[in-house]
Amino acid sequence: MKTTLNYTELNKIPCLTWNWLKMNRASLNTEVDSFLSTAMNIEGNLSDIKISQKKEDFDKALKKFPNTENKSQKDSISLSEQIGINETLLINVSKKIQEPLIIHFNLEDKKTYSSAQIITAEENSQITVIIDYTSLPTAEGFQAIQTKLEAKAYSKIHLIKVQLLGQNYTQIDNTDSYCAEGASIEITQIQLGGNNVFAAVHNLLDGYKSNFKSDTAYICKNKQNLDMTYTVLHKGEQTNTKMIAKGVVSDSAKKTYRGTIDFKNGCHGAIGDEQEETLLLSPTVINKSIPIILCDEENVSGTHGATLGKLGADELFYFKSRGISEHQAEKIMSVAKIQSVASLIPNQNIQEKILDFIQEK
Question: What are the C-alpha distances in Å from 148 to residues 70, 173, 202, 357?
Fold first, then answer.
């Protein structure tokens, strides 16, 4: 039995721009199998981590989760309500964990998945969580996943998401996070597979001197559609944001990146910076980039920049002078962009999986 999903408010930008630009939001109309499958497998040393996969524990934690003032998840929330959440995971750490915790999602062909996680770092604790999505190269299916992060005072969470799905998969991936005083959240994302991928990241820097950092790398080719929205709200004094997105778009692929830094009244001394690097390898690609800085506080520093286009003449001259063709140079630069972000992943096996996927792609 099939269920029809029709959404028009995915990845909605917090401050709307001109409608004719068609960048305010994304839409999705698809049919999915109404039967939800399970695919989660956890790897790592669990002795110092509290983990629960019970739905009742997850629901209790969800009610206590701080308000992150996220107003752009209307469709993703209604989506989970419509098809349900099949797998839940509650992670709580109270000390500094050195070894990464890995959550594998091995997705099968023509299946539907819906899951949610809450990761909480107690005061002065630390954890790295890697979420790995894989399937067969030709697989098709649908996955909806929601991740919530709470970094309490002086704690640190590093969340890594590696998306290596089959060429016909659709994925909606939402990450919602909260930082208390002195806390730090770092999000690293690798987007390589899938057919339609909608990724949203929202963070509230609520505490004094809290920090948010994101590094995103992607390759879009053939007819892939990658739609990303990153939003950071600064409320605490002397908070800091650094967002970097880099990747390659080729053939007839589509990529949209919305990056918003929002300085709220009272975030005295806050700093925000977002940078994007996109290599365009075909005249038929569609690339949309909309960096936004909103400001309701005087004493702040906000910057953004974007580098979009083909390989420069100086770069091509450098490669050709060493006997490397333009096509080979494009491959080298594409891999380099991914590897620069993949190097932030503290797991050799995951790094090798990424490299293997790129070589096959």
Answer: 12, 11, 10, 28
Give the CA-trace dihedral at 327, 332, 335, 337, to 10 degrees.
-110
Is 289:302 a contact under the CB 8 Å cutoff? Answer: no
Residue-wise pLDDT for 286-319, tens only, equals 999 999 999 999 999 999 988 888 877 777 777 7
CA pair distance 96, 39, nearest whole angstrom: 28
**Three-point CA angle 302, 246, 280, nearest 5°:** 120
* pTM reported for the whole predicted model: 0.95
End-to-end alpha carbon distance in the chain: 33
Helices and strands of the chain, counted as H and E runs: 5, 20
State the Cα–Cα distance between residues 40 and 353, nearest whole angstrom. Answer: 18
100 contacts: CB under 8 Å, gap ≥ 6: 44, 128, 129, 130, 160, 346, 347
Cα-flanking dihedrals φ and ψ of residue 77, to 5°?
-70, -45
How would you classify the pairing of strands 126-134 and 101-106?
parallel
What lies within 8 Å, CB to CB, of 310 at 6+ separation is: 279, 280, 281
- Quick one: pLDDT at residue 74? 62
Q: How far is CA 53 from the centre of its chain?
A: 23
Torsion of CA 38, 41, 47, 50, to 10 degrees: -30
Q: State the DSSP H helix or E strand holding residue 190, giving kind and residue range, or none if neither.
A: strand 184-191
Task: Find out whether 233 and 265 touch, Cβ atoms under 8 Å.
Answer: no
* Residue 338, both tokens: 């991914």
Say how far apart CA 342 and CA 354 lie, in whole Å: 8
